[in-house]
Amino acid sequence: MIAKIYLIVAASMGMLSVMLGAFAAHGLKGKLSETLLHAFQTGVQYLFFHALALLAVAILLRSITSVWLHGAGALFIAGALLFSGSLFGLALGGPSWLGPVTPLGGLCFILGWAALIVAAVKI
Length: 123
Known about the structure:
It is built from 4 helices and no strands. It is mostly helical.
């Protein structure tokens, strides 16, 4: 069941990254400073990369039972929400307290990759 949920979330993250990338390219260019536009685009890139990572986790979970894979998937989702979400919020004029949230999302991404490494070693 969790593999199906991760697959749905991965596909949603991938779709959202394409939509937000197009929005940035066509709707935000010229309306945001280069720095803020770059931050938004970084959020899009990381969202897409981790959609692919979550997709891999979902596929692996269909044939391998691993608490480490479950953890990697959860951490990739948390990282996407915290890292990419905070960058989107900051770029669009959100509150400044979002700034310290970004590194927490990055830490979730790092821990997710570490969990994926442990899962691979234990296979």
